[in-house]
């Protein structure tokens, strides 16, 4: 009998949030008669709250694992929820202009905070009782198998794993780190994989040998035929950590894997999204753009805007537009990556960088079609040539338009080194593999978290 892995912690937390928000709304309507009657538009309040919880990272691994991390983000989420509720009442007065709606708006803020806190308390108690653990059977016990387990423990969406390694000398040598790991166990005989699997009853089998020549395909097929899911190393890891492992990338997997096909319909839908989002934002943030422009002019001599060559789809070079945040002579000796506490950055420029306001003029690039709203961040031609010569597959980033925000930006802090570029490339390739408008909408929502909690800004 195969195991049922059950829902993930993030899915359970989402259902808990729905249940707690529904309970709070029901209690408010019963306990405060003045709230009645309310129209169907009132349902938008909890929907907006759920979107904010997702956007602010309260379903991410760090917030799921650390209860303190979740508590730190809840006040911001509650404040953002209040702002969203106010915006809805202002934008749609015919729906939310009634006194009852105003009362509902006032009650939604503490109710939202209480519901979100209650859901996370329940999740915390479930975690302490051992829920959400998954059992993996890893075929192989070499370097690749160890890399798999290490990344799962540090990056995976699943919170906890019990791992058993199945070793066969034909699959390579045992990595000494696995032998020294007190939490790992090794089955030294892979001759009867089906019997071993049935005895251990794992949630999933992951194939991760260093040597494939000794791999028993018949044994793996037998396990699959009786109901045990079987995954290849790269495909399983990609889904769990949200990026492609470049360190042990198998080019044959890359060749035959699904994805990496950018369809014309996807391009058209993304272009419509780009035009809609950039136009709307340019109207909304016009006062902020004017204030930033005045600040740049008053605090430092020189132009307000800074134009720089960057590379987008197909290697096409365009001129990106930003608010100037550095001295006018910042690159008199050539192109240089920004560094921590870079002395070339002006005081007002540092404020613009930390708040990401310096990026806002790039909405004009999006509107013109130089960039997309979502995509790999554009690099300078000098850096592209250097990185392409040192990082395999780097040019594949240019299969799609560069973006104002992207999957790498919402998952990896700012970096200005070869290792940082390699890590961001792993996220960019994952984005291109899963290219589509729905993925873009997820990234746009998660960008809100990066704005509130910027990391590594230089």
From TrEMBL:
List locations, semicolon-separated.
Membrane
Q: Where is the Bacterial sugar transferase domain?
A: 270-452
Tell me the superkingdom of the source: Bacteria
Per UniProt, the keywords (alphabetical) are: Exopolysaccharide synthesis, Membrane, Transferase, Transmembrane, Transmembrane helix
Please give the name of this protein. Answer: TIGR03013 family PEP-CTERM/XrtA system glycosyltransferase
Q: Which family does the similarity line name?
A: Belongs to the bacterial sugar transferase family.
Keyword Disulfide bond tagged: no
PANTHER family, alphabetized: COLANIC BIOSYNTHESIS UDP-GLUCOSE LIPID CARRIER TRANSFERASE, UNDECAPRENYL-PHOSPHATE N-ACETYLGALACTOSAMINYL 1-PHOSPHATE TRANSFERASE-RELATED
Q: Which organism is it from?
A: Muricoccus nepalensis
Identify its membrane topology class. Answer: Multi-pass membrane protein
Q: Single GO cellular component annotation?
A: membrane
Task: Give the transmembrane region(s).
Answer: 12-32, 38-59, 71-96, 102-126, 273-296
According to the UniProt entry, the coiled-coil residues are: none
GO terms, molecular function: phosphotransferase activity, for other substituted phosphate groups
């Amino acid at each position: 009998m195969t195991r049922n892995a059950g829902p993930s912690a993030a899915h359970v937390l989402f259902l808990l949030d729905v249940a707690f928000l529904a309970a709070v709304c029901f209690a408010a309507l019963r306990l405060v008669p003045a709230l009645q009657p309310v129209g169907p538009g009132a349902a938008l309040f909890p929907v907006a709250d759920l979107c904010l919880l997702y956007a602010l990272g309260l379903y991410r691994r760090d917030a799921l694992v650390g209860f303190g991390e979740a508590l730190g983000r809840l006040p911001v989420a509650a404040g953002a929820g209040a702002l969203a509720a106010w915006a809805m009442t202002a934008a749609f007065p015919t729906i939310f202009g009634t006194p009852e709606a105003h009362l509902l708006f006032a009650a939604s803020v503490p109710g939202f905070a209480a519901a979100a806190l209650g859901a996370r308390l329940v999740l915390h108690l479930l975690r302490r009782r051992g829920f959400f653990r998954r059992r993996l059977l890893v075929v192989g016990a070499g370097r690749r198998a160890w890399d798999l387990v290490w990344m799962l423990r540090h990056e995976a969406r699943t919170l906890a794993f019990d791992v058993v390694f199945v070793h066969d000398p034909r699959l390579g040598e045992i990595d000494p780190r696995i032998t020294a790991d007190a939490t790992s166990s090794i089955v030294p005989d892979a001759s009867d994989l089906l019997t071993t699997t049935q005895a251990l009853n794992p949630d999933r089998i992951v194939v991760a040998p260093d040597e494939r020549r000794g791999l028993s395909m018949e044994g793996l097929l037998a396990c699959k035929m009786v109901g045990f899911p079987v995954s290849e190393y790269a495909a399983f890891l990609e889904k769990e950590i949200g990026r492609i492992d470049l360190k042990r990338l198998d080019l044959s997997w890359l060749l035959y894997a699904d994805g990496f096909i950018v369809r014309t319909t996807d391009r058209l839908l993304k272009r419509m999204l780009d035009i809609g989002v950039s136009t709307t934002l340019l109207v909304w943030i016009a006062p902020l753009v004017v204030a930033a422009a005045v600040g740049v002019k008053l605090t430092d001599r020189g132009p307000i805007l800074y134009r720089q060559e960057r590379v987008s789809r197909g290697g096409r070079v365009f001129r990106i537009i930003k608010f100037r945040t550095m001295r006018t002579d910042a690159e008199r000796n050539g192109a240089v990556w920004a560094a921590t506490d870079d002395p070339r950055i002006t005081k007002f420029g540092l404020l613009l960088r930390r708040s990401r306001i310096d990026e806002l003029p790039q909405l004009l690039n999006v509107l013109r079609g130089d960039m997309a709203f979502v995509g790999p961040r554009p690099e300078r031609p000098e850096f592209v040539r250097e990185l392409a010569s040192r990082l395999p597959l780097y040019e594949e980033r240019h299969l799609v338009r560069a973006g104002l925000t992207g999957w790498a930006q919402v998952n990896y802090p700012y970096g200005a080194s070869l290792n940082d570029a390699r890590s961001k490339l792993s996220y960019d390739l994952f984005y291109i593999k899963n290219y589509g408008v729905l993925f873009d909408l997820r990234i746009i929502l998660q960008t809100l978290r990066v704005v509130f909690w910027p990391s590594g800004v230089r």
